[in-house]
Amino acid sequence: MVCIGFVVLTSTGLMQEIRHSISSVELTEAIPNIEEVIQSQVKKVIVQNYNASEIQVDYSQSSEQAVHVFGSYRYSTTDGENELKLPDSFASVHTIGDTMYVSILQPPRRNGIHSSYPHMDVTVIIPEGVTTEITGNHKVI
Predict the structure, then answer these.
(1) What pLDDT digit, counting tens, does each position of 29-48 carry?
(2) What is the pLDDT of residue 81?
């Protein structure tokens, strides 16, 4: 009876879910820094947060005319699994005409019995004096 139970758990994938919930580890990694120079024709910066986590937006008083994106990423994983590792394309910066778009994307998440919703702490630094529009969950500091 016990063997049949293990066969059922293994064949349905429940055994893997049980292993994952028992041996998972929470990791925190630094988000790769993004620095994008604001060209002279840019009049407006639009920050779009598609991430469920709140991002922080700060206005720099330095003379450097650049947008900086940095922060940390926390996720749960088991040994040898990299399915929730932050992809290189967690954010995108595009300049179209006189507008620069900074998009913060939703990181991968794991669904199932042992769901995992990674968390990103993202800070976006914008030069003071640049017209800014922010969409999504954010806090201005």
Answers:
(1) 888 888 999 988 999 999 99
(2) 61
Mean pLDDT of the 71-79 span: 79
Rounded CA-CA distance 93/47 in Å is 9
CA–CA dist 3, 6 (Å, integer): 5
Reported as a single tens digit per residue, the pLDDT across 8-22 is 777 777 777 666 667
**Cβ(60)–Cβ(126) under 8 Å?**
yes
User: Cα(47)–Cα(109) distance, rounded to whole angstroms?
Assistant: 23
Decide: helix, strand or coil at residue 41: coil
Checking phi first, is residue 37 left (phi over 0); if not, alpha (psi -120 to 50) or beta? beta
| Residue 135 structure tokens | 């969409």
Q: Are residues 58 and 125 in contact, defined by beta-carbon separation less than 8 angstroms?
A: yes
In 55-130 the beta strands, taken as DSSP E runs, fall at 55-60, 66-77, 91-96, 99-104, 119-127
* Burial degree of 72 (CB within 10 A; 0-12, 13-18, 19+): middle
